[in-house]
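call fold(seq) -> C-alpha cells
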Amino acid sequence: MSSATAGGGAAEDPVIAAAGLTRAGAKVSRNFDWVIVLIALFLITGAFHLHYMLLAGDWDFWVDWKDRQFWPTVAPAAAICFPAAVQYFLWTFFRVPFGATLCIVALMLGEWINRVLGFHLWARFPYSLIWPSLLIPSALFLDAVLLLTRNWLMTAIFGAWGFGLLFYPSNWVMLAAYHLPVEHMGETTSVADMVGYAFPRSATPEYLRFIERGTLRTFGGHSSAVSAFFSAFLCMVIYIGWWFIGWAFSKMIWVANPLAGYMGLKSPQQS
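ret:
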C-alpha cells in the first residue's frame, strides 16, 4: 500500500500519488506554494520599483518633467527590463503569458504606495504633480504578442517595439491638459510648469523649459514621435538582453548540502 493511500485515501489524485504525499501533506505543500508566490510578488514589486525610480526617476515623479523628448525615451526603456526577465521564467516553465502585465501591475502598486504615503501624505505634494506614468497598455501588448507568436524573438521585434510606441499615446489622455498654455506674470507657460512653480523642488533642470528648441526639432518638428520610435528601438535591444538575464537566473544548479550528515540526511555522494 502506498503512503498516499495509507495517509488519507488520496490515491485517486495521480499528482499526489506520484509525489508520495498524503492529502494533508499536499495541502501543506500548496499553502507553502502560496507563501512563496506572495513573497515573490513583494520582491518583484520592491526590486522593480527601486530599479524604475533609479532609472526613470524624476521623469516619472513630476508632471512638469514629463516632456516630449526625454520622458518618452527613458521611461519605457527602463520599464521593459523586469517584464522581459519574468516573461522568460513564466513562459518557459509554466506557459503563463502574463509576465509583463504582472510586473507592471506590481510596479504600479509600488508607485502608488510611494506616491500616496511618501509624496502626498508626507511631503504634501498634490496628486496633480506626482501621478505616475501609465504602462499597463504597453505590458498588455507585449504579453499579447508573446501569446500569439509563442516566440521570444518575434516578441522582441514586434512586442518590444509596441511597448515603446504605445507609451506616449497611453499617457497623453492624462497629460494633454497639463500641456495647455497659460499666462503667468506676462509670460506664456504650460499648466504643468505652473504646478511646478507652485511647488518648488531642488534641482529642477531648466533645459525642460526649452525642449521645443532642441535638436530633435530638425526632424520635422515632431520631437515626441522621434523619441517614441527611438525608445521602441531601445526597448527591442533591452528586451533581448533581459530575456537572457531571466534565462541565467532561472537555471537550476544542484549544490551538495555539507550539513546533510549533521541533519540525519544522506548526502548525494552517500546515496
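Residues 63 and 128 are 7 Å apart (CA to CA).
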